[in-house]
Amino acid sequence: MTKTLQEIITIGEAISHPVRLKLLYLLSERERYIYDLAKELQLSRQVIQLHLKRLETAGFVESDLRLEDNDNRAKKFFKLKEFDVNLGIDDLTEIFD
């Protein structure tokens, strides 16, 4: 299945930042919620949320809003989705021919 130009750009932008690559690595270990990721990377939750949004839009991660048993606040957990990044000449031919 060939990719559209927009899909290629979205994927490229998503993996072009070191923080987003680190997020993919951390999420490959287990699912986490934003507070855990912010603490691990020593960044604000808002910054982590922006990076995760970009990864989610590109199809690398998915999120799930849950209530914990011991805490009545909703927490948004993120986990890694199965992905395979590749770009072939067929993709470019389909776009530019």
What does this structure look like?
- The longest helix is centred in the middle third of the chain and has 13 residues, at 45-57.
- The model has no long low-confidence stretch (mean pLDDT 92).
- This protein has 97 residues and is α+β, with helices and mostly antiparallel strands.
- It has helices at 5-14, 18-29, 34-41, 45-57, 89-96, and strands at residues 32-33, 61-68, 71-80.
- Strands 1-3-2 form a 3-stranded antiparallel sheet.
- The chain has 5 helices and 3 strands; from the N terminus they run ααβααββα.
- Helix content is 53%, strand content 21%.
Spatially, the strands of the biggest sheet line up as: 1-3-2
Low-confidence stretches: none
Global morphology = elongated
Q: Helix and strand string, N-terminal first?
A: HHEHHEEH
The count of helical stretches stands at 5
- Average pLDDT metric: 92
User: How much helix, percentage-wise, in residues?
Assistant: 40-55%
- Based on CA atoms alone, the radius of gyration comes out at 16 Å
Label the structural class: alpha+beta
The oligomeric state is single chain
- Gap between N and C termini, in Å? 16 Å
> Biggest sheet, open or closed, and with what strands and sense?
3 strands, antiparallel
Which percent band covers the strand fraction?
A: 15-25%
Task: Write a concise synopsis of the structure shown.
With 97 residues, this protein is of the alpha+beta class. It is built from five helices and three strands, in the order H-H-E-H-H-E-E-H. Helices cover 53% and strands 21% of the residues.
